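Same chain as my last thread, 313 residues:
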Amino acid sequence: MTTAGTSRTIEQNSLLAILLMSSAMLIVPVMDIIAKYLSADLPPLEVTFGRFFFQFLICLVLALVTGQITRLRGTQPLINYMRGILLAAASLCFFTAVKFMSVATAISIFFIEPMVLTILAALILKEQVGIRRIGAILVGLLGAIVILRPSLAEIGLVSLLPVATAFLFSFYLLLNRLYPVTDGLLTIQFSAGLSGSLMLGAALLIGNVAGLEGLAFVMPDSTQLGLLALIGLISFAAHGLVVAAFQRGTASLLAPLQYIEIVSATLFGYLVFADFPDGPTWFGIALIIGSGLYIAHRERKLKKTVQTAVAEV
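reply #2:
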């Protein structure tokens, strides 16, 4: 699970954009696989804290080396920190989910995000949603129900955490619509790392002091510390790849490539944990992907219609 960021004037190169986006979608599930592996011994809250803390350290070091330390505050710091808090909460929900369910299943459920975003945009931003997109939303949600059904029976309400992740990430995207990103990649990543570390660190401290089961800090060994740092590095790199891809290619070209993440998660999940989705799960995945692609297609068509209408005025 990752995000797109700012775009600036860079020569368009569709082939390179596809390569960059595909690379990002291939490595993002590696982060989730590592998180699942670590969660066997470390609380998901601590794993999530490590992801944001090491991202923060990487950004800080790069800023010092490149002389960009004064730019880290950004032009809209409060909004940037709010973005980081939403991403941290979403990551915590997701890393907690993969402790109990396969990464491929969690990612597949998370991909109801385009449907959730469409609903929230209609309710909050008063965007018009036609009957076709409503139909696509219902199909996608049906796919999620198909996937969730056995998980709800086996592990209970924790299986709804990928749904919570989709809602939190949708609010993150809504925030981006209301306040378009104006700062550079390093500033955005630094802000997310700092705000996420502060929020999750505070929660970890409270859990440790209160002795809450599953929230108390566990001292990682050298291997676990290295894997936590690797999660932070993968997050930083994947975000950079996605931003670079969107700078060189259109959203309509790149959006379908996000579903490579499901294939990658399935492959790595099988190799590491011997997890493999069953037939009904694949059917649910197909429904979610199909509805997500249709929503993207309808939004692209509507955007072109609006642009044409504006040009004719």
